[in-house]
Design brief:
Largest sheet: 10 strands, mixed
Number of helices: 5
Low-confidence stretches: none
Number of domains: 2
Radius of gyration: 19 Å
Shape: globular
Mean pLDDT: 96
CATH architecture of the largest domain: 2-Layer Sandwich
CATH superfamily of the largest domain: Pseudouridine synthase I, catalytic domain, C-terminal subdomain
Distance between the termini: 25 Å
Order of helices and strands: EHEEHEEEHEEEHHE
Structural class: alpha+beta
Length: 249
């Protein structure tokens, strides 16, 4: 068996999430069915993250184990040919040691959240960003976000359906910046709780709108109470950006 590491790019709009779901299509199902058609083998896809319905990925790291003798480039090309026209693409493929695991070997994950801060309706970006027509103060959002950086109990920013054993996480970075009509939120950590990024972004948006004071973000974090959450941002603005590993160049 050969372990192939795949880098996946996908539009999460048509899927019920990355992981297989009984009630609808998933990215995992699409890739596993493509592997079966290419190799004749029923392989299991393992991934660095577990994205919700509607969440996108720029470079999701995953892996499959395949017995067929095939070069990484040929596997990548064949999978992409079979995956069309679904909005999933394998952008890189390489061989990894048997003890390398897309999820358990991962030492860092990063996300990007895109807010379109304009009054005009979205056309090309519809389904790929959260539109907020009222002006946002990105500077205030960034200052408030720094209260969340570091090691904390993120119960307030954790979905009630989260299956993580502990609400304790260490957030390495949470930056907010403006780029024209866009307000971009970048988050990095070893791992995240279910809905953590969307919950943080939704709360920061209230600060940007002037509905919350900057200090309130630290207060609701300390409360460790999900009912104190201000707002959960919608899925369509969230992108899994990258996963890092000890053997990365």
């Amino acid at each position: 068996m050969t372990r192939f590491a795949l880098t996946l790019e996908f539009d999460g709009g048509p899927f019920m999430g990355l992981q297989r779901q009984a009630h609808g299509p998933s990215v995992q199902q699409a890739v596993e069915e493509a592997v079966l058609r290419v190799t004749g083998e029923a392989a299991l896809l393992h991934s660095a993250g577990r994205t919700d319905s509607g969440v996108h990925a720029l470079a999701m790291r995953s892996h499959v184990d395949v017995a067929k003798d095939i070069a990484p480039f040929r596997l990548q090309e064949a999978l992409n040919a079979v995956l069309r026209p679904q909005p999933v693409a394998v952008t890189a493929c390489c061989v990894k040691p048997d003890d390398w695991h897309a999820r358990f070997s991962c030492t860092g994950r990063s996300y990007l959240y895109r807010i379109a801060n304009r009054r005009a309706p979205l056309t090309l970006e519809r389904g790929h960003a959260w539109q907020i027509p009222r002006p946002l103060d990105a500077g205030a959002m960034h200052r408030a976000a720094q209260a969340l950086v570091g090691s904390h109990d993120f119960t307030t920013f954790r979905s009630v359906h989260c299956q993580a054993a502990s609400p304790l996480k260490s957030l390495d970075r949470l930056d907010v910046r403006r780029d024209g009509d866009w307000v971009l939120v970048e988050a990095a950590a070893r791992s995240f709780l279910h809905h953590q990024v969307r919950s943080m972004v939704g709360t920061l948006a209230l600060v940007g709108l002037g509905q919350w004071q900057e200090a309130q973000v630290a207060e609701v974090l300390a409360a460790r109470d999900r009912t104190r959450l201000g707002l959960n941002a919608p899925a369509q603005g969230l992108y899994f950006v990258s996963a890092s590993y000890p053997d990365d160049a």
